[in-house]
Amino acid sequence: MTRTSDKPSKKINDNKMTSSIRDRSQIVIILGIYILMILFFFILKPNYLSYDNIMTILLATCVNGLLALGVSFVIFTGGIDISVGTVMTFSSVMSGIALNNWGLPLPLVILFGFLVGAFCGAVNGFGVAKMYLPPFIATMAMQMITKGLSLVVSGIKPIYFTAAPGYQNIATGYFLGIPGFYNAIVILLVIAVIAYIIFSKTIIGRFALAIGSNEEATRLSGVKTDNWKIAIYSLCGLFAGFAGLIMSSRLNSAQPQLGAGYELEAIAAAVIGGNSLNGGEGSITGTILGALIISSLTNGLRIMSVPTELQSAIVGLVLALAVYFDKRRRINE
Questions:
Q1: Which one of 88, 208, 287, 294 is least enclosed by Cβ atoms within 10 Å?
Q2: Cβ(195)–Cβ(69) below 8 Å
């Protein structure tokens, strides 16, 4: 009996080790490309690497980075979550309701927003694992539900957090009083480290990769894949709740019409960071690099006065190339 339980564990660890070796080499390549891109913009516009602009890039990375971290865990399993943008908005809207209508103290308001995000993720996971819905369909349904509920609950009006003095400082306050070094940046870094630990040091990361590599084999080895899928989608929703906190704090309000479209940038960041849409491989480091690439590229194009429409087209081209090279690499393996 002991021997049987050791076999799947050894196989999962072997798969993780092989994936880790591939990921390290891929991260080096992505980092090299990122450095070349920064140098390119710096040569054309030397103020690109000014302190203020670097802080602007990092602040712009925060929301997308948090969403991308959550989406990455789902992508590791071979799934997808296109609801993270509207779940982010819904969690911030419900936090606003808890503050203004229910009179909850701020710590409980923040916690409630996180729980709303995690609950939406759990519903996604239940739809995928127990109702056998394709991840795209299950999360698209959640996207539509949360988008509609945000508009209904808010009355299609912004919900302001003025009843909580200092709420805006959660994201836009200066960390340790350092000008330009926003609290949101520190929050992203801390949560990225936590995500890295969850992925690399806990059973969630091992099982996420195992499910993405071969779900049936993982299930037959004794892993309750359905339960772990629900847990992973819940984790993704929790990250969306964190993003909702940062977004609403930056705006000092919950904007019910925001959200749609954020999921595309989050998925793009994860894929550009080397996370395979087929599942079974990827890294948290790559995800953060992918989010930085998108915000740095967008910022550089903006400084060069490239039209917004063309900026989106260029980011889309970069995403297409990332997927293309991933497919080529997998074929060659």
A1: 294
A2: yes
